[in-house]
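Preliminary data (for renewal application), zinc ion complex.
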Amino acid sequence: MTIKGSCCCGGVRFELFEPPAMVGACHCSRCRKVGSTVYAYVRAEAFHWVAGRHLLVRYRPKPPFSFNRVFCKRCGASLGDPDSGRVAAIAANCLDMQPSPSPDFHEYAPDAPAWDVIPETERPYGRPNGE
Ligand SMILES: [Zn+2]
Ligand SMILES: [Zn+2]
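Predicted structure:
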């Protein structure tokens, strides 16, 4: 099976060759500010860029944070951190699959603002102060 994904303008496109191994929602301020808070995790071997690599820009945070942020420089879509490790962390907002997967876990849940409501049926975990 192939799952397709793309940025808002369609210039960046990618494919997954297997379903995400897990999906996690992050409620930290960094994810909130870059506009992507749910990530689908897939083995790096199963992730493939199809088009638009020339449109990618990368923000590397200062330590202790290490999660890179990849964006489309034309439309600003946040794509997650798809290609910097053995596991691709793909912003779920860019997946074209339907139905979109729901989170398997929540992290930095105590940092969630009031408008970021975590369903009671889902078990949050994580420590606060994920600045
Ligand atoms: Zn774009
Ligand atoms: Zn986060």
